[in-house]
Amino acid sequence: MAVDQLKRTSLYAIHVRSGARLVEFGGWEMPVQYAGIVEEHRAVRIAAGLFDVSHMGQVEVEGPGALDSVQRLITNDAARLTTGGGLYSPMCLPTGGIVDDLTVFRLGEQRFFFVVNASTAEADFAWIREHTTNATARNRSAEFGLLALQGPKAAAILGRVTRINLGDLTYFHMRDGVEVAGVRGCFISRTGYTGEDGFEVGCPWDAAPRIWDALMEAGGADGLVPIGLGARDTLRLEAAYMLYGNDIDETTTPLEAPLGWTVKLDKDEFIGRDVLVAQKQTGVPRKLVGFEMLERAIPRHGYDLLSGTAKIGHVTSGTFGPWVNKSIGMGYVTPEHTRPGNRIAVEIRGRPAQAAVVKLPFYKRSA
What global pTM score does this model have? Predict the structure, then answer.
């Protein structure tokens, strides 16, 4: 896609001003790094980082049939949510393959708010609208800018620019209709994609630069820095969060990925349920595992995974983990190779590099 055809968030001028290196991502021109991936990664683990995630999509479903529609669309159970509560869930095809993985929040008795991936936002909206009955699905993606403030100092920094009590906002809960940095009509959720405590702040599209600048000023003394997509990827991989299009897609099911905990087979009918029931009974042909390299080599997406000379799968995500200080990856393998400690190899430039299966996640923050 030509540069002049790429979409830009309302923070584009700030990224340019901040010296970001910009790349194409999902049809958007986005910052991949500012000071450098390793430096940015470590800043989030130690202090805090600020991300532009305005390319993400938002869909609202409201009306008498909203809960029934949401329940049909996702594998998780939205009926258990109280107002302000949220959850993570795959959204599946009838084949059990994953349309997208997303977060959904209950903002009222029959009002739900989806946050979906950027690369699938338009397709997700079409799918949600197609399967919504007796309710209205609205694509609100163009209305909101979205910032992610992540790291151990995130709560202290955000608390300086909003009056709401962040201590009362527990993990995976949202408050909407709040004011941030003098901007009304915002929402704050205690969510993120880094493995750290943090928040996602939604605001009117054109107000995002104002909130970005206010947060950077409020957090400067605490070491807050802007973070690009590069460190976002290394952070999420250390935390073993799935990346749609790499680790999961329409050819993988939640039971093949380590997402069985999101599949609630005891709730009413949902799209893909029959296939997932069958997989639960008969087992899956492959499983996504984590592994760490036992020699100096970096696994990359698409590399073959081997047992001896036999191919047993492929790498879905791989990198050097700046915080765990080792090369790590995830990939699908046949069931007999999933036990932690099992030795496998990654074929890198025609040579098998030794690795070992490990329990996920690679990194988990201390309480």
Answer: 0.97
